[in-house]
Amino acid sequence: MSRSGASTSRYGRSAALLTGAVGAAGLLTYAFFALASHALDREEYGRIVVLWSVMFIAISVLFRPVEQLLSRTIAELDTHGQPTGHVLRTAAGIQLGIAAAFTVAAFALRGPIQDDLFDGDALFFWALIASVLGFAAAFFARGYLAGSHRFGLYAALVLLDAVARMAFALVVAVGLADGVDPIAIGIALAPLIGLLALAWLGRAQRAPEALAASQGGPPGGEAAPEFTLSQGTGFAAAVLVIMLSEQVFLNSGPLFARVEADTAAAGFIFNVLMVVRAPVVLFQAVATSLLPHLTRMRSRGDRAGGAAFRRSVRVTLLAVAAFTALTLLAVAAAGPALMQLAFGEKFEYDRPGLLIVAAGMGLYLSATTLNQAVLAQAQARRAALCWAACALALLAWYTVPAVEVFRRVEVGFASASALLCLLLALAYRRPRGRPEDAPEPGSPRELELRLAAADDAA
Fold first, then answer.
1. 83-136: per-residue pLDDT in tens?
2. For residue 40, with 0-12 CB atoms within 10 Å meaning exposed, 13-18 middle and 19 or more buried, which class applies?
3. How far apart are CA 291 and CA 452, in angstroms?
């Protein structure tokens, strides 16, 4: 096998490992919330949901851009056999500056955050600070590991974080500890525990993947572009907009319910949206492999490649439709009972609401499929505009007071997913791509998109 062929095969195995690890981490996160929902009362569980939602939106907005930029730039420099020390120093300075700015802002707004979001609980405020700062370091580590092609350690970091967090919920669920505080502490400490365990694994690893990757690069080869903040900003900005819009779809509902009602309402609607989250986690195995497959088919430039491209999209959409139909049947037959089995009997679940969200899940997964096709067609900016428009429409819908709070979230999610599916379908059918936006298989841009999908699954 040629060097390029071996590199492609190694990359494929690493990507499969990453996909499996992130899927497992997503399932562990699902188990974390199931255990917390069983172990806590309605108000306590709602506070955990609010803490999680605020934290996840904060780290996505603040730290993912540096992770993506770092992973992509290191991969690009490695391709040219260039050193990466200056990149690490620059990215570390950026991440530290952002973390410091967040800390200052959080303490300036401590009153509203602690009193309005966390019902005056100081521990939750400190848990938010600790978890966000922990993820600042974790996302920096992820960017370095991904760019260095050390996907085994990347996967370990994602899994260790999820395992550590779930362990705290398990301790409460089996009765070794009581109350909401240990679970909040678990959210705060999980990134740090993952990093410490990763450091031990990194020292124990005698032949890191980075060594093999660096040996494949052309030593003393062509100079790579100088690393600057503006490097690749157009493509990176498009990816960031898509990621942030996904957070609006999946995490804004519980926060809206908290503002409009109370913490128990946030916990309830978070559980309802688990009808979406669990399939999204499982779908990542398809989504992350679909992008490079579609990109390869499109890059062939012949009629057979175009036909294979369209057939892959069509088959995936049909599979999503079949899965959605089965989900709707299960929800119609036993949806409320299944939800209470998974999350406890403290909430009464509404069958029509679950059906609305299940239908929205099918539309959302269809939109995700079309999004991969649009990205493969070199339409990253156009895809970002579709996502942003639908996310803004969803937030605007939340302000309509005539509809009950829970139904607003349920109908809003399904309707925004339908609109997103329609807009991305139009973009897919009438492509207007830019060549510089096309992610080549195995390239830093494809890596950036894979990591974005992986982070959202976790």
1. 778 888 888 888 899 999 999 999 999 999 999 889 899 999 999 999 999 999
2. buried
3. 12
